[in-house]
């Protein structure tokens, strides 16, 4: 895990976003990379606003960063306002009951605590409806709390030219105008790259910090993760034999095979296996890409090393599944998923080594 790359990626996005402020999204254990190591590095790089999904994540982050501004994206559950207040957390309020609960708590305790207001501009997942937002805009100064941010979330920003993205920006601009004096935040990683009109006062990059692709066709920033696993056995098999569970792939030539210590329990998706009809993931051994053959099992996968010189691959050698030109999005594409899922699925059995930062 290259913490220096994460810091550099944040600085790059922050410079691009200026004069908008640049936050950091560290939910899901900093996208699977370890919030305890990642968040302090981002703080030292200059991030002051952080976003997580759950209350427990926010409490863990507060212990790491006592002075940070921490928003909790998944909102305010019933009877939890006192817990958020005690930890100095800012809930992202996306419904009338949440707004009422936070406002009542603040009034009862004589403290106009900050919180974000989430407005749904077209994703239809979380947030006030447009009608609710317009109604609230006429009375928001009477709330018992201090609205510190008006925010929404882009549904299709990673797809260039998608009609919904432009529509969401237009709707959000109208909403923000109705709440004068309150900063707006619409842009995720992809939204930040779409231009100044999408950035408003605060951008919220996530995947771009961690070396993933934010917009299809736009190269990622510095890679962050290198994933190596050991070869546990080298073997041979004649043409016509099958490899792995289900006999999903039949060898077309006499083959040399390297079985490696990684499986779906470690986040190498079963869908990344190979069959007679489809090619799965690849790994690099001794500088050469080697295709996976057969299914991925819980703890093991098998690579075809026939094109390498005989005897080069030995038990204990390192096979690289991420790094040396294989990005998280390359691995994801071969597995029928996205880079986000690759990162957040990295298993607990790996020995994690942090460099830089």
From TrEMBL:
Location of the active site: 27 (proton acceptor), 245 (proton acceptor)
Cofactor(s) the protein needs: pyridoxal 5'-phosphate
GO molecular function: alanine racemase activity
Stored InterPro entries: Ala_racemase, Ala_racemase/Decarboxylase_C, Ala_racemase_C, Ala_racemase_N, Ala_racemase_pyridoxalP-BS, PLP-binding_barrel
Gene3D superfamilies listed in its UniProt record: Alanine racemase (3.20.20.10), Lyase, Ornithine Decarboxylase, Chain A, domain 1 (2.40.37.10)
Pfam family, one: Ala_racemase_C
Keywords, comma-separated and alphabetical: Isomerase, Pyridoxal phosphate
Reactions catalysed according to its record: L-alanine = D-alanine
PROSITE patterns: ALANINE_RACEMASE
Residues with the N6-(pyridoxal phosphate)lysine modification: 27
Keyword Isomerase on entry: yes
Pathway(s) where this gene product acts: Amino-acid biosynthesis; D-alanine biosynthesis; D-alanine from L-alanine: step 1/1
Enzyme nomenclature, EC number: 5.1.1.1
Every Alanine racemase C-terminal domain range: 224-355
Function: Catalyzes the interconversion of L-alanine and D-alanine. May also act on other amino acids.
Family recorded in the similarity comment: Belongs to the alanine racemase family.
NCBIfam families the UniProt entry points to: alr
Entry protein name: Alanine racemase
Protein species of origin: Xanthobacter oligotrophicus
Gene (name only): alr
């Amino acid at each position: 895990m290259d913490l220096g790359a994460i810091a550099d990626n944040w600085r790059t996005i922050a410079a691009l976003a200026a004069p908008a402020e640049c936050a950091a999204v560290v939910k899901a254990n900093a996208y699977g990379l370890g919030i305890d190591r990642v968040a302090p590095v981002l703080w030292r790089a200059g991030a002051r606003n952080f976003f997580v999904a759950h209350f427990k994540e926010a409490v863990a982050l507060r212990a790491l960063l006592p002075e940070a501004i921490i928003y909790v994206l998944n909102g305010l559950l019933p009877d939890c306002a006192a817990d958020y207040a005690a930890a100095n957390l800012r809930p992202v309020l996306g419904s009338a009951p949440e707004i009422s609960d936070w406002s009542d708590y603040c009034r009862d305790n004589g403290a106009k605590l900050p919180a974000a207001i989430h407005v749904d501009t077209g994703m239809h997942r979380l947030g006030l409806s447009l009608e609710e937002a317009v109604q609230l805009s006429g009375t928001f100064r009477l709330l018992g709390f201090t609205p510190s941010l008006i925010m929404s979330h882009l549904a299709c920003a990673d797809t260039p030219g998608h009609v919904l993205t432009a529509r969401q920006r237009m709707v959000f601009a109208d909403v923000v105008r109705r709440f004068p004096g309150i900063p707006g935040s619409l842009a995720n990683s992809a939204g930040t790259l779409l231009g100044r009109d999408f950035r408003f006062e605060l951008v919220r990059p996530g995947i771009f910090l961690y070396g993933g692709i934010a917009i299809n066709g736009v190269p990622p920033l510095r890679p962050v993760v290198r994933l190596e696993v050991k070869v546990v056995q080298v073997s041979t098999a004649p043409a016509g034999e099958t490899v792995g569970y289900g006999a999903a792939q039949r060898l077309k030539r006499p083959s040399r095979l390297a079985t490696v210590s990684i499986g779906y329990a470690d986040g190498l998706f079963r869908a990344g296996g190979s069959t007679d009809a489809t090619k799965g993931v690849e790994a690099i051994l001794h500088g050469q890409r080697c295709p996976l053959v057969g299914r991925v099992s819980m703890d093991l996968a098998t690579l075809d090393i026939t094109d390498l010189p005989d005897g080069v691959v030995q038990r204990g050698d390192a096979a690289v599944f991420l790094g040396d030109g294989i990005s998280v999005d390359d691995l994801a594409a071969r597995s029928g998923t996205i880079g986000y899922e690759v990162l957040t699925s990295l298993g607990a059995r790996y020995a994690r080594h942090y460099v830089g930062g």
